[in-house]
Amino acid sequence: MVDADLEHAYMPSIWNHQHLSPDEVLAKHFAIVAAESEKARQELTVISDIRYGTTPKNSMDLYCSGPTVKAGGVLFAYVHGGYWQALTKEDSAYFARTICKSVENSVFVAVDYVLATETVYGSEAKMKSIWEQMTPAYAALRDVADRLDCSGIFLCGHSAGAHLVTAMLSGAFEPSQRKSLFRKLKGLWLLSGVYDLVPISKTSVNDPLQLSKEEIQDCSPHNRVADIVHNLGATTSCSVKIMYGEFDPPAFHKQSQNFFEEVNNYVQTQPDYVHIRIKPPVEVKDRDHFDLVDYTVLEENYVLTDVVEVLKRHLQESQTFRFTEGVEGVETVDIKDVLVDFKVK
To answer: What is the pLDDT of residue 331?
Structure first.
């Protein structure tokens, strides 16, 4: 049964500050991200449908400013939102042009996944399966980064996508597996995320999901903090940035703040994890749930500006390290050649 108060609290379209109706703001957002993603396909080199699982939706698209990349570059992966029932990777490359053109030697990857509304996949369209898709998705990202000789992996997710980025980090891996998987992970951006599914189970969002008690428990990031932190602990250095719009629903503010406190408190109990850098959530002024990511011009998008600055800083530090340490690597890598027979290790 839908709880009317929670239904209102967890519908970001109701809270928008753009003087639009809920339907209008959703239509505007979908139109913007689709148009910007199409521009990326027209202007960038694209490798489509890199598979990481058994269905066509278990795939990702890679974007780059040209057909080759130099050793030591960065991979930025984006997981779209849509409350686990809308959008696709084809709609989710709207940051690609700005990142690939602003950050030399970068690749952008849009990650797709089976949605709860895609009943053609049967039982796979459940939260547990959506959550579990993220483990092979991240393994594929790591493998792509290795093939391209990237020095760092950066992850970003918006709304339900932020929830799924944490899913990538939630596996109970052995220490040796953690080091292999996460050694190149350098940063996360969690944008207007959902980290506790209990309230979602009492809204209309749950109609296609039909969350079970087990899924609410196992697929809520705030219940997986220990695994997430231990996996982040396998990195050599990693920043975690949590952001939301000033005009996001207050419930989303609270979810982000609570998740930060839970993760930060656990990190403080682990003296060996001083390299995990997590800062208090940032409230992005004059932005709501949708225009937090809609703008693709750097001067108008706080998130993109921060991403570009972080990626550039990492590249500078990485290049300095490779030079001083005499690290050898292939000067340039042809993307299509190294990914033509791609399979997850």
So the answer is: 77
The whole-chain average pLDDT of the chain stands at: 93
What CATH code is assigned to 4-339?
A: 3.40.50.1820
pLDDT in tens, 180-193: 999 999 999 999 99
CA distance readout (Å), 313 to 63, 121, 145, 191, 316: 21, 42, 18, 21, 5
SS3 78: strand
User: How far from 14 is each of 82, 83, 85, 123, 176, CA to CA, in Å?
Assistant: 15, 15, 18, 31, 46
**Contact 308/98 with Cβ under 8 angstroms?**
yes
Residue 322 near residue 331, CB atoms below 8 Å: no
For the whole model, what pTM was predicted?
Answer: 0.95
Pairwise CA distance, residues 191 & 193, whole Å: 5
Give CA–CA dist 275/330, Å, rounded: 29
At 51, give phi and psi (nearest 5°).
-85, 140
Instruction: State the maximum Cα–Cα separation within the chain, in Å, rounded to a whole number.
Output: 62
Q: How far apart are CA 5 and CA 68, in angstroms?
A: 52
Strand partners, 332: 70
- H helix and E strand count, the chain: 13, 11
Distance between CA atoms of residues 62 and 41, nearest Å: 10
